[in-house]
Design a protein that fits this description.
By secondary structure, this protein is α/β, with parallel strands linked by helices. 64% of the residues lie in helices and 10% in strands. Strand 4 (430-433) and strand 5 form a beta hairpin.
């Protein structure tokens, strides 16, 4: 039996946010594949900032040279000196200014060209890994998660990777490099005072931004949760469109959706208000720093210690620092948002795999395909055991049917055969195929050996051809059509305007229940596995269609090991063995004739179904008022 901790530990994903550094460290392996590009991109980044540092320095030289020209003009030496200075000095400086600015742009674009492949490759690898991991998780996980919210987590997480790398490489790191270069230049060229004031202003600005952003983070998390909840509600409602219409609950669904939107609105308003407080505080810190720096520089010019070019240089440096620094506040907030979004996706990736393959598990080797259930005990939840000591054998190439009332545990047998859940070793018993415990072989090889026609057939929102070919994607078109013929659906498909390319709609809602089940039968025929499992395979068909399909099912089940889970007893009379289950236990077994002779539960069920069938045949046709002319 499944341990009591299984559901509590594995089903819900932890909602506790991880440390930001854990999220960043989780991303690093995906970037390490392109180490060379990363190093070249960082080299270009430094080159761009060095060139950018040279822009105000060259401008200072131009201003000082022009000031000298004006000084010479004022002394009455305006005949030759200005022309000589212009040709010999200022002209070259103007050219140098243009070259330096162009170099900044060149290195910046080279950095982006080099790193674009790194970013997109990391996004692709991580998104693919999450997608595969989600398919590797147990059925329990997917039954307890909302697909809409999970898809939004993945979408925001992949977008967060792009934003994180973009903001880090294109905003934060370049700004830090530039700050270091400017502070070093101030110390070497000017007074330490400029470096100290600049550093203090930056430290106060960054501290204020970090603290305020940390305070605001919970608003963003709340918005994410409410956004996922609202999206999940909307998708769930739209997927169940027919149910909503049946009960006329459109307004009820709209009110429930609006409740989530109102909560989101409230959280968004709080987030925006706190953003305004943050922006004003940042501008106040920047303004104070500029006042102290420019006041000192102005005093230096008036005292003759600094030139006008120095004042221009210092002011330009401050602008070059504070303009991106002002944007750095926005970047940091977006960075925190990206980390929050990525955290949700990495949390999905860290969800434990409840049904893992054992290390070095071999593939299943199918010979005759004998299936055995040995003392199987199982429960989805600790408080309610589903199967109690279930044991039976399906001999190779034979058909065994399992019947019983709803809730007797019949469909659970199918889920266990496919390893949607694993039996507890020691106490849960075992399921074997040709003597191989299915827990010890790979899930891929196991599922490749079993074909199923489920009771509730859900199709992909694609064409009929795609849904049939899904049983074996490598099949040829002739093989797909042959499978459709065997399932008695080919003529119906050919009669459609678009034939096999007809879209089936979301979950196959454009097809009737019987048509969907025929598609499911066709793709199982196409798969051609050695073991077949029919879970109420003809439940959605009328009597005439059921007889035709039942004949085809009998043909494809011939010489294959087949397990039929059925409610209609008339569909299993041909089975070599019939297992009767009640409340998770086997209460009877034998052939159809033997069970009728025994006069037990099977005989009672058979009599009841025959009585109902007779009542249906004898019932008069019901004509709805107003419809008689149809």
């Amino acid at each position: 039996m499944r341990r009591s901790s299984a559901s509590s530990e594995l089903s819900p994903i932890s909602t506790q946010p991880r440390n930001d550094w854990q999220t960043i460290i989780s991303l690093l392996p995906y970037l390490a594949t392109y180490r060379g590009r990363v190093v070249l991109a960082l080299t270009c980044l430094i080159g761009a900032k060095v060139a950018n540092l040279g822009v105000p320095i060259v401008m200072k030289r131009i201003v000082d040279s022009l000031a000298s020209v004006r000084h010479l003009t004022a002394l009455g030496r305006a005949d030759h000196a200005p022309a000589i200075v212009l040709l010999g000095g200022v002209g070259l400086l103007v050219v140098a200014y243009a070259v330096v600015r162009l170099s900044t742009s060149l290195f910046t674009e080279l950095r982006e060209i080099l790193f674009s492949k790194v970013t997109q490759s990391a996004v692709r690898q991580l998104a693919l890994k999450v997608f595969r991991h989600l398919h590797g998780l147990s059925l329990r996980f997917h039954l307890e998660r909302q697909t809409g919210g999970m898809s939004r987590d993945i979408e925001r997480g992949t977008r967060g990777i792009t934003q994180l790398i973009s903001y880090s490489l294109y905003s934060i790191l370049p700004t830090l490099v530039e700050v270091g270069l400017v502070l070093g230049f101030f110390i070497v060229k000017y007074e330490v005072y400029y470096a100290i004031v600049t550093f203090v202003a930056l430290a106060v600005y960054i501290t204020f931004t970090v603290k305020m952003t940390e305070w605001r983070t919970h608003f963003r998390r709340t918005m994410n949760d409410l956004d996922s909840r609202a999206n999940s509600r909307a998708i769930d409602s739209l997927l169940n469109y027919e149910t909503v219409k049946y009960f006329g609950n459109e307004e009820w669904e709209a009110q429930r959706y609006d409740e989530n939107l109102q909560r989101y609105r409230s959280a968004a308003i709080k987030s925006q208000n706190s953003l305004s407080v943050l922006n004003f505080g940042q501008q106040a810190i920047i303004g104070a720093g500029l006042v102290f720096i420019l006041w000192r520089a102005t005093e230096g010019v008036m005292a003759g210690k600094l030139t006008l070019g120095d004042l221009v240089l210092i002011n330009t440096f401050m602008l070059q620092l504070y303009i991106p620094l002002n944007f750095l506040g926005v970047v940091y907030r977006e960075l925190k948002q990206s980390l929050t979004d990525m955290d949700r996706m990495f949390t999905l990736l860290s969800a434990p795999q409840e049904v893992p393959d054992t290390p070095d598990a071999p593939d299943l080797i199918v010979g005759g395909a004998q299936v055995r259930f040995e003392h199987v005990n199982f429960s989805y939840e600790p408080a309610r055991q589903i199967l109690h000591d279930v044991s039976f054998t399906i001999p190779a190439g034979t058909t065994t049917a399992v019947v019983g009332h709803s809730g007797s545990g019949k469909s659970t047998l199918a889920r266990l055969m496919f390893r949607f859940y694993d039996l507890e070793r020691g106490t849960g018993g075992a399921i074997t195929i040709d003597g191989q415990d299915i827990r010890d072989v790979t899930q891929d090889s196991l599922r490749a050996s079993i074909g199923i026609v489920p009771q509730d057939t859900v199709l992909f929102n694609d064409s009929i051809y795609y849904n049939i070919a899904y049983g074996r994607p490598s099949a040829t078109r002739d093989e797909v059509i042959a499978a459709a013929r065997a399932a008695h659906i080919h003529d119906f498909i050919e009669g459609l305007p678009n034939g096999y390319e007809t879209p089936v709609g979301e979950r196959g809602l454009k097809l009737s229940g019987g048509e969907k089940q025929r598609v499911a039968i066709a793709r199982t025929i196409l798969k051609n596995p050695p073991i077949l499992l029919f879970d109420e395979a003809t439940s959605a068909l009328d009597s005439r269609s059921e007889r035709a399909i039942q004949h085809e099912l009998d043909l494809i089940a011939r010489e294959r090991t087949t397990l039929i889970i059925a409610h209609r007893l008339s569909t299993v009379v041909h089975a070599q063995q019939i297992i009767v289950m009640d409340k998770g236990r086997i209460v009877e077994r034998g052939t159809h004739a033997e069970l009728l002779t025994a006069g037990g539960l099977f005989a009672q069920m058979w009599a009841l179904q025959q009585q109902r069938a007779a009542q249906v045949e004898d019932a008069p046709e019901v004509v709805v008022a107003g419809e008689g002319g149809r």
